[in-house]
Amino acid sequence: MPLEPGLLEILACPACHALLKEQDAELICTGQDCGLAYPVRDGIPVLLVDEARRPE
């Protein structure tokens, strides 16, 4: 389920405050040194660093 377009404009990575982009069922941080992937569960972004997947 895609997120509302205006929502991505105001969300930021909690770790580095960079913008997020939607990819599959995750929000990916666009920060060069960060790259954390936050899950989206039931249409709700889970923006907790402890729940994020580290970049590979």
Task: Supply the key terms.
56 residues, 27% strand, alpha+beta, 4 strands, 4-stranded antiparallel beta sheet, globular, 1 helix
Question: What topology emerges from the helices and strands here?
Answer:
Elements: H1 5-10, E1 20-23, E2 26-29, E3 37-41, E4 44-45
Task: Give the % helix.
Answer: 10-25%
How many individual helices? Answer: 1
Lateral strand order in the biggest sheet: 1-2-3-4
How many whole angstroms does the radius of gyration measure? 10 Å
Q: Beta-sheet strand percentage?
A: 25-35%
> What is the approximate shape?
globular
Largest sheet: number of strands, sense, barrel closure: 4 strands, antiparallel
Describe, in plain words, how this protein is organized in 3D:
With 56 residues, the chain is α+β, with helices and mostly antiparallel strands. The chain has a four-stranded antiparallel β-sheet with strand order 1-2-3-4, with no helix packed on it.
Task: Describe the structure concisely for a colleague.
By secondary structure, the protein is of the alpha+beta class. It is 11% helix and 27% strand. The protein has one helix and four strands, in the order H-E-E-E-E.
